[in-house]
C-alpha cells in the first residue's frame, strides 16, 4: 500500500470506501470477509467526488458480478426445477439454455456429491462456476429482456487468456475451487452470492 493511499484514506475514509468498492474488496479479499462501518457522516458528505469513466466501469462490473450470481444463478441452483417447469424462467433463458443449465446443475451436484445447496459454502462455488460457464447466455437474455445497455460480461480474470475452449470448464472448476488463493472470491468482490 502506498504512503499516498494511506494518507488520503486516513484523512478521508469515504475515499477509502470508494477505493474498496471500485477495486472489489469492500467485503474483504482472499476469501476473508471484512465487516466495516460504512455509514456516511455529515462532515464526510462534502468530500464525495464524481467518478472517472474507468472507475464507473469497474464499479459497474462489480455490481454485475454481484447481481447475476445472487439474483439469476442462485435461484436456479437452489431450485433447478424452475428451469423445466416455470414457463417464465424458461422464456427468460430460452428453452435450450434452460435445459442446458438444468442439466449442468445436476452434473455439478453429482460431480461434487452435494444434494443440498442451501448452506452458503455449498452453493457459493457452484454459483461461481455456473456464472463463468453460462455468462454469455445470461447476458444475451438480459439484453433481450431488460435492455441492450446491460452490455456484455465483464472481462474474465487474466489467467483465463491462455485457456483453450475445450479446457474452459475444467479450468473454471480449479479456479473456483481454489479456496487457498481466494481468487474467485476476489473476482466477485469477495461476495457474489451473499
Structure description:
The chain has a two-stranded antiparallel sheet with strand order 1-2. The chain has a domain at 55-187. The chain has helices at residues 3-11, 13-22, 53-78, 82-85, 87-93, 95-112, 120-145, 168-177, 183-187; strands at residues 28-29, 32-33. It is built from nine helices and two strands. The chain is globular, with a radius of gyration of 19 Å. With 194 residues, the chain is mainly alpha-helical. Mean pLDDT is 79; it is low at 1-13.
Please give the largest β-sheet: 2 strands, antiparallel
Low-confidence stretches: 1-13
What best-fitting shape do the alpha-carbon axes yield?
A: globular
Looking at the chains present, what oligomeric state does this protein adopt? single chain
> How much helix is in the residues?
55-70%
Kindly state the number of beta strands: 2
Helix/strand order: HHEEHHHHHHH
Radius of gyration: 19 Å
Mean pLDDT: 79
What key phrases describe this protein's structure?
194 residues; mainly alpha; two-stranded antiparallel sheet; 59% helix; globular
Q: Can you describe this structure in just a few lines?
A:
This protein is mostly helical and about 190 residues long.
Layout: helices, strands, pairs:
Blueprint: H1 3-11, H2 13-22, E1 28-29, E2 32-33, H3 53-78, H4 82-85, H5 87-93, H6 95-112, H7 120-145, H8 168-177, H9 183-187
Antiparallel strand pairs: 1-2
Helix pairs in contact: 1-2, 3-7, 5-6, 6-7, 7-8
Amino acid at each position: 500500500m502506498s504512503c499516498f493511499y494511506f494518507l488520503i484514506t486516513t484523512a478521508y475514509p469515504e475515499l477509502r470506501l470508494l477505493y474498496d468498492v471500485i477495486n472489489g474488496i469492500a467485503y474483504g479479499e482472499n476469501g476473508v470477509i471484512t465487516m466495516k462501518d460504512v455509514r456516511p457522516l455529515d462532515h464526510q458528505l462534502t468530500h464525495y467526488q464524481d467518478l472517472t469513466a474507468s472507475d464507473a466501469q469497474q464499479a459497474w462490473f462489480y455490481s454485475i458480478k454481484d447481481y447475476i450470481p445472487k439474483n439469476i444463478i442462485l435461484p436456479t441452483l437452489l431450485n433447478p426445477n424452475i428451469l423445466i417447469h416455470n414457463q417464465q424462467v424458461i422464456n427468460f433463458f430460452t428453452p435450450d439454455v434452460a435445459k442446458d443449465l438444468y442439466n449442468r446443475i445436476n452434473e455439478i451436484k453429482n460431480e461434487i456429491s452435494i444434494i443440498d445447496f442451501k448452506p452458503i459454502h455449498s452453493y457459493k462455488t457452484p454459483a461461481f462456476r455456473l456464472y463463468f460457464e453460462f455468462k454469455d447466455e445470461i447476458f444475451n437474455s438480459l439484453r433481450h429482456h431488460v435492455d441492450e445497455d446491460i452490455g456484455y460480461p465483464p472481462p474474465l480474470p487474466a489467467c483465463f487468456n491462455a485457456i483453450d475452449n475445450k479446457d474452459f470448464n475444467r479450468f473454471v472448476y480449479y479456479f473456483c475451487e481454489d479456496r487457498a488463493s481466494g481468487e474467485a472470491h476476489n473476482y466477485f468482490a469477495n461476495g457474489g452470492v451473499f
